[in-house]
Amino acid sequence: MKFNRCRTLLFYLLTSLSSDFLASEEPVMVAIDAGSYRALYLTKDSEETQVDAFFIDQLPVSNEEFYKFVSEHTKWQKSRIPSVFAEENYLGHWVNVINQWQPDINDTDRPVIAVSWFAAKAYCESQNKRLPTVAEWEHVASASETSIRGSHDPDYNQVILAWYGRPTTQRVGRRDQSVPNIWGVKDMHGLIWEWTEDFNSALVSGESRADSNLDKGLFCGAGAAGSADPSNYAAFMRFGFRSSLKADFSLSNLGFRCASNGE
Amino acid sequence: MKKRFIQVILASLLMVNLSQVYAELPSDSVYHLTADWRTENNETIRLSSLQGRKQVVAMIYTHCLHACPVIVAALKHMDAELHARGDSTVSFVLISLTPESDTPEILKAFAVEQNLDDSNWTLLNGAAPDVRSLAMALDIKYKVVDGSEVAHSNVFSVLDEQGSILLQAPGTVAGALKAVATLHPQ
Q1: Given an 8 Å threshold on Cβ–Cβ distance, is B66 in contact with A125?
Q2: Which of A21, A155, A195, B24 is deepest in the core (most CB within 10 A)?
Q3: By residue range, what is the domain housing residue B120?
Q4: Is B19 contained in some domain?
Q5: Is B32 in Cβ contact with A84 (below 8 Å)?
Q6: Mutate to test the interface with A, among B97, B131, B141 (most CBs of A within 10 A)
Q7: Whether the predicted interface score ipTM is above 0.90
Q8: Chain B residues closer than 8 Å to A117 by CB
Q9: Is residue B14 part of a domain?
Q10: pLDDT, tens digit, 9 for 90 and up, residues B98-122
């Protein structure tokens, strides 16, 4: 009897998983207009980085979507991925069911986390997309609900900083529970940190011999005082965080979304 | 008929060998990257074909005026120093950070100009996302500045016979000598 119930449960689990996964829709992408973006650590007079028009996923990639990816591209499965591409904690929140790692059934619609940069990039490439650059990501992230440059709204920073201040002991929230920003993109803040294509290039300055100067620009008070927007403390935190990452890291609050040049 | 039979046997032996080589790649090997690259001789290769010898790997761009000439000079010094110690187990690989401008032809011209020994040096051109992945695997930071200049970490890596990173050192003569000393402790 007990065995039977167990089997029924298992059957339910497997069928519901597979049908859910196969039925999942194509992720919605949002068009982002060209714009400019001034790296924080540069001074007010410095030139802005031009960002060309592009498309970005409306939501971060979910556990469900990532599960479908590793089912089709088995070299990225938790049990098979070489250590050069991901550290031990890769997909550490997934559960092992009959020798197969898969998301907990309560996690399917939460953002996938604990994925390395390599795995995130491979996921996007499997969809003929790519990871957004830092400039693209920040361009989208600086929008509030009502303005493209939301960092000038007083509430904008408050909300983000409140999230940064919250301890990450809780489970990552569900996607699509927040109000979209003016582009129509959701969950840029408040759920997870996200990988970018060139996350570690912030520490490189105009030429490699001068790298040491840039650390100051990013982290010192003196550097912040001369920067384009010292009030954008949240963005400083992101830069600090990104520069501490390595591409094989698999952190329990770090996920991603994809971008592309065309729709 | 007999000849054909031998050919089949040889071919299958070769395939077994190849599959063994791939199966045996250590988990931390950079050679798990499966992209195609073009050499300065316009041959298409994968990084895994560099297996079997130690490889000194640096990322450069040929029109660079600052750090790259220093890296290349340092690695040439390292090459000479290894030869002086009777070590012929190490090869050198230069990977372009500006694949659009550093075509195989330009890389070839650079190799000739720099007097790089064709039998021991390989220059590679690859697609931009693959260059980024390799840089990530080697923990090299770079950023295109002003359209064509590239700011990048001034380091090189020594890979063992199967593509695991043995050591990394600054791309200077001092760094090169340190690497030689590590490979040949006295």
Answers
A1: no
A2: A195
A3: 26-183
A4: no
A5: yes
A6: B141
A7: no
A8: 136
A9: no
A10: 999 999 999 999 999 999 999 999 9
> What does the pLDDT read at residue A37?
78
Rounded Cα–Cα distance for residues A146 and A70 (Å):
38
Does B137 reach chain A within 8 Å, measured CB to CB? Answer: yes
Number of A–B residue contacts, CB under 8 Å? 63
Cα distance between residue B115 and residue B67, in whole Å = 18
Residue of chain B with shortest Cα separation from A124: B129
Sign of CA dihedral B147, B149, B153, B155: positive
Distance from CA of B50 to the nearest CA of A (A): 17
pTM for the structure as a whole = 0.82
**Bridge partners, residue A27, by sequence:** none
- Whether residue B37 contacts residue B45, with contact meaning beta carbons closer than 8 Å, is answered with yes
Are A83 and B27 a contacting pair at CB < 8 A? yes
Q: Are strands A54-57 and A29-32 parallel, antiparallel or unpaired?
A: antiparallel
For residue B30, give the nearest of A84, A200, A204 by CB distance. Answer: A84
Contacts of A203 in chain B (CB under 8 A): 141
Domain-located, residue B10: no
Contact A82 B30 (CB under 8 A): no
Annotated domain spans of chain A: 2-260
Digit-coded pLDDT (tens) for A123-154: 999 999 999 999 999 999 989 888 888 767 77
B15 domain residue, yes or no: no
Q: In this complex, do B153 and A84 lie within 8 Å of one another by their Cβ atoms? A: no
Radius of gyration for the alpha carbons in chain B, expressed in angstroms and rounded = 18
CATH number of the domain that residue B34 is part of: 3.40.30.10
Q: Is B30 on the interface with A (CB under 8 A)?
A: yes
Which CATH code is given to the segment(s) A2-260? 3.90.1580
State the residue for tokens 């569900």. A174
pLDDT tens by residue, B127-185: 999 999 999 999 998 887 766 778 788 899 999 999 999 999 999 999 999 999 999 98
Give the whole-angstrom CA distance, residue B165 versus residue B156.
10
Number of domains within chain B: 1
Task: Locate all alpha helices (DSSP H) within A94-148, ordered by sequence.
Answer: 117-126, 134-141
Q: Is B67 on the interface with A (CB under 8 A)?
A: yes
CA distance A154 to A132: 27
Distance CA A219, CA A214 (A): 9
Chain B residues in contact with A84 (beta carbon < 8 A): 27-30, 32, 137
